[in-house]
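Box 3.1 A note on notation
Throughout this textbook, protein chains are presented in two layers. The first layer is the amino acid sequence; the second is a token string describing backbone geometry. Keep the layers aligned when reading.
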Amino acid sequence: MHCGPPDMVCETKIVAAEDHEALPGAKKDALLSAAGAMWPPLPAAPGPAAAPPPAPDAQQLGGAGGTGPPGGRGVCIREFRAAEQDAARRIFYDGIMERIPNTAFRGLRQHPRTQLLYALLAALCFAVTRSLLLTCLVPAGLLGLRYYYSRKVILAYLDCALHTDMADIEQYYMKPPGSCFWVAVLDGNVVGIVAARAHEEDNTVELLRMSVDSRFRGKGIAKALGRKVLEFAVVHNYSAVVLGTTAVKVAAHKLYESLGFRHMGASDHYVLPGMTLSLAERLFFQVRYHRYRLQLREE
């Protein structure tokens, strides 16, 4: 999770369908060939074979690099528009709020030392009280405290994010060089988001803010959003795409791996924006920060 504003580096305008003709033929073919070689096309989505005329700035999910309008059955990936600010913020908010129970409960499995500590506390309770009832209440109380502190920290993180880059997506991602923001649109409604931010010092692009409306998951939308960032990196000649995540769900990590990312390591000492590092917080809130990298070319 990251809530700070993006660095303003590098040119970011996406090369849309009509802009491809402006690229030298050899360069255009090389870029598209490289993109196709790095990740396989998404499986075709069920539906009629015929498609409406393509929109130049929209990539339709369901075909190998196909394009289509935002409406209809197809899901289109296109650049963010200012009128979609509230919809994008809602999807981001809902996606982060899902991490409260995941971090509090599922995340406990990633921290065996914390599990051991909680078991010792329960044993100590029994040794002192000799009461099975009170001892059985200890785990429930500890999980309740984990939920409370997970909610407290994640809400603080959300407040930070919603008052920085997510406060004005147009200003932070669409206007400055070095960043861009895309939306997935289904039947005129925004159902997914993703952002890219370039790092000039090492010529990489960071993938961030990826989230899909829970009602539309399992349809390949997240993978299509991720591919959009990879295409952006290829077209603009970046050497790698990187990302960091505290996601607990295995599905999220499988998604990154399916896009070609390599897991570069994990840390249990990541300080999430909004953390106070108090003793109680250290006892009842832990996250594991994972780093991924997809190398596009050698520098």
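Confidence is low (pLDDT under 50) at residues 5-34, 40-56, 63-72. The beta strands are 58-61, 75-79, 179-186, 189-199, 204-212, 240-245, 262-267, 289-295.
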